[in-house]
Amino acid sequence: MTAEPLAVSTATALVADAVAAPSLGNAQPWTFRYLRESGVLRLYADLRRTLPHSDPENRGLHMGCGAALLNLRVSAAAAGLAPDVRLLPDPAQPELLAEVRLSGTGSPDAALAVLHPAVPRRHSSRLPYRDEDIPAAVRERLSDAALAEGAQLVFPGAWHVRSVLELVRDAEGREASDPAWRAETARWAHTEPAAPGAPGASDGIPAEAFGPRQHGTSVPVRDFAAGRPVPGRGQAVFEQNPNIALLGTVEDGPVDWLRAGQALERVLLRATTDGLVASLTSQPLEWSDVRWAVRDPVSAMAYVQMVIRLGYGPEGPASPRRPVAEVLDVV
């Protein structure tokens, strides 16, 4: 005997949590379709929101959609549901990334449900953190969160952290000399505030979320200003010994990117729950001849999917999200 399909209002609430996920440039490259008769919610890639220069293979797009899928699963678990998830269910439709049967009758995932309060609180902080180590027990919980989604999370040693910082600087230099790259960044990173009384953009990164310019270069925080003036933006000294984690997978195809995205968001929600803040850096991963060097040679990780800066400090301002009505179709 199967459960009755869920109400549209429940599916809408799940999608509202799903779209709080991070994505490259906050492009929010996802759409959802709820098949109300069967109780199936489908996740599609929105190919109008690709970043062809920084994400030519759509690896980041898949990771962002994977992160949204993890949020949906967390929301479902908190609502007492046990969804059945299939990744890439139809080879003839590569843009159909996941199919979630919401009317499953199993037991809710308690480990996911406890992360639900962190969903609205999680957002990137590009502000300075305190120079403070992360306790071993907290690091272990973060690594376990990645492992639960079929990925790995490693904290490289000091020498490799310095190497990652050098690779970030190299990638920044390449981007600065590439007009097409700068134009793509400018499309999604808004340096000017919205006019008084006018609605702000519902996607992209607002200027207040850029964080201050670094005095020196000590942490891998992307400068979304890309050389453009930002009214009122200051400069700050960042931590000298950043806590860097590398998230990676054994293989490197679309299904692995979806799993990596789910692992990334599970790590970020776990970090938020444990009182940490985080920011993401993908710059050195966006150049094929540099990405291999980000990998920690003493780990078993084959492909690095994201560089994560973690620590203790102020929460950054939230970036906007598109309204659910814009991303959810009910049929």
Describe this structure in words.
By secondary structure, this protein is α/β, with parallel strands linked by helices. The protein contains nine helices and 13 strands. A five-stranded mixed β-sheet has the order 3-4-2-1-13. α2 (59-78) packs across α7 (254-273) and α4 runs antiparallel to α7 (254-273). It is globular, with a radius of gyration of 19 Å.
Given the structure, what is the number of helices? 9
Largest sheet: 5 strands, mixed
End-to-end Cα distance, whole Å, is 24 Å
Q: What general form does the structure show?
A: globular
Number of strands: 13
Tell me the β content.
15-25%
Oligomeric state of the chains?
Answer: single chain
Any idea what the radius of gyration is? 19 Å
The order of strands across the largest sheet is 3-4-2-1-13
- By helix and strand content, what is the structural category? alpha/beta
Helix and strand topology:
Blueprint: H1 8-18, E1 30-35, E2 40-45, H2 59-78, E3 84-87, E4 96-101, H3 110-113, H4 136-148, E5 152-154, H5 158-176, H6 179-188, E6 189-190, E7 205-206, E8 213-214, E9 235-236, E10 243-249, H7 254-273, E11 277-281, H8 288-294, E12 303-311, H9 324-327, E13 328-330
